[in-house]
Amino acid sequence: MFAATTLDTHLPRSEEGSLPYSHELQWPSGLEPFKVVDDGSQEDPYAHYTWMRENAPVLRCWSPVSDVYFISRYEDVRKAFRAPKIFSSEVVSPPPMTFLTLFDAPNHNRLRKVVATAFTPKAIKLFEDRIRETANALLDDLLAKGGGEVVEEYAIQLSMATISALLDVPAQDYEKMKFWSDETFSYFGRLARNAPGTGTDKDSAHDFWAYLKDTLERLYAEESPSMGGHIARMWKDEGILTEQEAKELCSFVFIAGHDTTTILLANAFRIFAEQPGLLTRIRETPADAAQFAEELARHSGAVHRASRITTEAVEVAGVAIPAGSIVRLLNASASRDLFDDGDTFDMDHDNSKSLGFGHGVHSCLGQPLAHLETTITAEVLAQRLASVTLDPAHPIEWVRGNNLTNAGPHRMHVFLEEHND
Description:
Blueprint: H1 46-55, E1 58-61, E2 68-71, H2 74-81, E3 87-88, H3 107-116, H4 121-125, H5 128-144, E4 147-149, H6 150-167, H7 174-193, H8 201-221, H9 227-236, H10 243-274, H11 277-284, H12 289-299, E5 306-310, E6 314-316, E7 319-321, E8 326-329, H13 331-336, H14 367-384, E9 385-390, E10 397-398, E11 409-411, E12 413-418
C-alpha cells in the first residue's frame, strides 16, 4: 500500500516515518492517485472515496502551496464539522471576500443572521407555485423535442430563476448572469482554495459586484421585501453590513443558491434513468418525492469538500495532523459511509444523519430551498415522464474541480418519453 508502482519524479517524497503522500500509495488499477486539483481523473470521484475510506481515511496530498489532508470517513468528518474551533473555516485570514463558508464566529454568525430568515421553510414555501410553474414550462420544451441537454435546458434555468426571485435580482440576461456567477466562483476558488482561476475571473467578479450594487440601490429605493432588499437595508439603514459586504454577500447567495442545486437537479434525471421504477413509485405516491430529494442529497450531493485549517495539532483516525494544516472534509464520501450499501440509491434509507448539506454551524443555509426544488422536480418528472434514458451518443461531461468543491454532471443529454394516463 505504501509504494506506488510508478512515481512522478518531480513530485516530492514524504520523509521517513511521516504519512505518505497520495502519489506514493499503491492505488488499484484504474484509479490514479487522488489530487488536490482535479486533472480529469476524479471527476466522478466515488471509487476514489471508497478506496480512501478503506485504506487511507486521512489522505495526504501534495500541492505547490501546501500539503492538504483529505478526511473521508463519516465519524471523522462529522466530528470535525462539530469542532469549528479546531477545524477553522478561515483558511485564508482575513477572508478575501464575504462568502459565509470563509468565516468563523463571530462574523459568521453576524452574516448568516442577515440572510437566515429568507431560508426558513415557511419563507421558502411561498415560492413553491413559481418553482412548479417554471419546472413544467422547462419540461414542456424538453418533451417537445424528445429530450435534450438537461443541465443547460432545465437544471441551471430552474435554479437561477428561483434564486433570482428570492433575491429580486433580474435574471433576464441569463447568459451574462451565469457567466458572472461562474467567474466569481472561480475567483473565490483562486483566492480561497488555491485553484487555477480563469485569467479573467477578477475583472468579471468586480463587474458582477458593480451590477449587484446598482441592484441593491434600486431594491432599497423600492423598499423591496425580498432578500435583496433586506441585504440593502442591513447596509443602508442598520450599518450591519458594509457596502462591500452587502454586494459580496448578495453574490454568495446567488452563486450558492443555484450552482449546487443545478447539480442536484441534473442528478435527479440521472437517477431516474438508472432506476426507472422510481418514476412509477413517486407517480403513485407523490409524498415519496421528499424522500427522493433527501436520498439524492446523500447519495449524489453537489458539495463534496469543505475546506478547513487546523488551529492546533489534532489526531484523526490515528493520523497526527499538525496545527496550521489545510484539511478538506469529504462530506460526500462520509454520507456514502453511513450505510453498508451506501453506494446504492435507496429512497428508504434513513437520512437523518446525512452530511449531504454539511453539518454543524456551517450546515447549508439554502437546504430548504434546494430540497424544495429537488422535491418538485421529482414530482413533476414522475407525473409527466414514462422514462428517462441517457443518450449514449453524448457521454456525461463532469464538473471539473477548479473551485475544489463541487462534483456532478456539467453536461448530460437524455431522451425523454412522456407518460400518458
